[in-house]
Amino acid sequence: MPEEPPKQTEYQSTVFPTWCPGCGDFGIWGSLKNSLVSLNLHPWQFVVVFGIGCSGNMADFFHAHGFHALHGRGIPNATAIKLTNHTLPVIIVAGDGDTYGEGMGHFIAAARGNHDITVIVHNNQVYGLTTGQSAPTTTKGTKTKSTPGGTIEIGVNPMALAISSGATFVSRAFSGDMAHTAGLIKQAVEHKGFALVDILQPCVTFNRINTYDWYRQRVYKLDDEGYTPTDRTKAFAKALEEEKIPLGIFYREEKPAYHEEVTALKEKPLVEQSISSIDLAPALEEFL
User: InterPro entries this protein is in (predicted)?
Assistant: First the structure.
């Protein structure tokens, strides 16, 4: 008998989310599940690596093969999983502080190598779990718990950072539009190479500036303008827009993923290769 298609309830754990009522994380949680249903992936057919923070707490609320990484270390764990078994779709769920702060070096390295992973970022422009400190994406001048006089640094621009780092799928979503967000996640998972879905996610408790209404007055969809995401220069221009906030795919490029250029993985995944015939004696003799 053919396998039954997945249902959204398959990804539901026995733990209900502890996020604040109205948190944008709920929209991302629902969008991710909807995208996996449309991708026809059961919980045992993919892996999710979770970061630290409110976004990382989804590890408790999501039923699938997964790994809860250290702060900023979701991407290197995900690349290791992908290199071990490159037949598995690998998804990272992390926050803006996690990805663009503690993990920025890993983000750039993975994008530069075009590792075949999907990075879903909950971007609420604060460190929400630790009660609202300034984050890498916080707008310059914003007063937060850790910057009562206003944030001194300029905020990281995730779209421009990803494009300049070599990412081959760069997109932005808004958690208040679940259908659009789910569609972008689906396309990102289907993409062969490094894919970013940066999701603007209101923090209803600690960020009273970037609210649902604030975003709805400013966001617009690139698709509605007939935008084609194949020109890197035009993608940069869209990434630098400030008065209005573009949503959708900024840039997409097709080229070999990292694992496709690793000689040892040409025939089959590492997890399927036997090490029983490897003689370590010469190496041990040389180095010990």
Answer: 2-oxoacid:Fd_oxidoreductase (IPR051457), OFOB (IPR011896), PFO_beta_C (IPR032686), THDP-binding (IPR029061), TPP_enzyme_TPP-bd (IPR011766)
